[in-house]
Here is the input.
Amino acid sequence: MSSQIKNICCIGAGYVGGPTMAVFADKCPFLTINVVDLNEERIKAWNSDDLNKLPVFEPGLDVIIEKCRNKNLFFSTEVEKYISLADIVFISVNTPTKTKGIGAGKASDLKWVEACARQVAKYSSGYTIVVEKSTLPVKTAEVIKTILEASPKNQEKASFDVLSNPEFLAEGSAINDLENPDRVLIGGENPIAISLLSEVYKNWVPEKKILHTNIWSSELAKLTANAFLAQRVSSINSISAICEATGADVREVSRAIGSDTRIGPKFLDSGPGFGGSCFKKDILNLVYLCQYFGLPEVANFWEGVVILNEWHQHRISKLIVKKLFGTISSKKIAILGFAFKANTNDTRESAAITICKDLIEEGALLLIHDPKVNPTQIAKDLGIDENKNNLMKSKNPNSPDGEWSFTDSIVNALNGADAAIVLTEWEEYGKLDWGELSKLMRRPSWIFDARSTLSPKKLKEAGLNYWRIGDGS
Ligand code: NAD
Ligand code: UGA
Here is the structure.
């Protein structure tokens, strides 16, 4: 049946659209796939000969792009043209939290999704399956359907089905997640449309992993999956605080509870608080839906997950100040890791943003290191320009303001530092030679490991004071 589907258009060449369509192209060489975006820079980067310049860093992505690009995978800004050629259109555009108007701060801003629906209605020809790939509030399919049916069409004969097919990939492991998904979820009404999309996935996903639901269950399942995952992180982070207060160790508690097969071992690593573009946004979206449907107790339950996460990040900033004798004004602090997790260049909602802002507010001089994040992005995230001069020299000791600077050398970051804080679990941080590095630091020197990546034994041997997340010993 897959032969009926020959041409796919994906609107949105972001973290989801790019890698997802790359894997589709690789697994289905008989399909022609066009990924379109309004952002010319982004499309240029996807078409770049230098694979290090792809707009998304994901292990394994460059290999697939090299293999499929300009064979059956194309990146373009010609949105209308490729909509008109497509049998299936994926909508994979951004759905951020609304910043103003009704539902500001919680509800999803659907203006980009609506714009896509209007373009699809206008330019598609014949029968087109429109697939929601973006994460959307429950009932968005109804909005898309209404727009498709009411808008002026390119062709009298144009007809549509709308399906929900949310994406569950995690950044840093996107290619593996797409190639070996735990499940593929397809929600919809028309069994023919569901079957056509399933046939595409069946080229590499075992049939038993392709779940069919009604469209509202599919939309809600995506929000629920993210809410449950984030809830686990907030739960274990809340326990880390009790561990520190009581002498328990959160890693031991995680191991003990994770051995219960009903709980399971994954997603029980206590860290500096969850980040990423989606957990907070999707939970707040769920909270808004609960409020809208008159369920305040349910809304409060889920909002607690986000409130705990924010509290936890500030908790870490405060304890750092406390351990450094109650003041960090003019103290040099090395920040190891700025991405929201390892193996990605994404900093959206990274715990490092909150913690660095808190420390700068207290007057610290931060030397920030990250193997994949660039200083322009960090400046944008912190809302503070980088001081590119030597911080120690440029700083007026009487000024209460903190500053930050980027460095690609860990030695440089630690030279003369009072403390180092590990905020992202990059593998290279676990291999550092603290015996040597400790000699560069000002004494007494502190290491704060918010990711449990360092060896406490080696830090102790190097004569360093150390704090580790959830370690009450
Ligand atoms: P992104 O911001 O990286 O990419 C979205 C792209 O859509 C942008 O490049 C933007 O220019 C483009 N766009 C917006 N409106 C357009 C239009 N009308 N025509 C053409 N292009 C348009 O976003 P993302 O991280 O890829 O996320 C996309 C969706 O997938 C969101 O709903 C998100 O919640 C969901 N999601 C994200 C992840 C993730 O790991 N990032 C995982 C699963 C689901
Ligand atoms: C998450 C989900 O895992 C994906 O299934 C989903 O598709 C995606 O959101 C989305 O909808 O955007 P992602 O945000 O890329 O993926 O990364 P995760 O691995 O889930 O990590 C999220 C945050 O939680 C990170 O800051 C990470 O460091 C933190 N985390 C995760 C912990 O602190 N401890 C853990 O045990 C696991």
Q: What stands out?
A: The two ends are 61 Å apart (CA to CA).
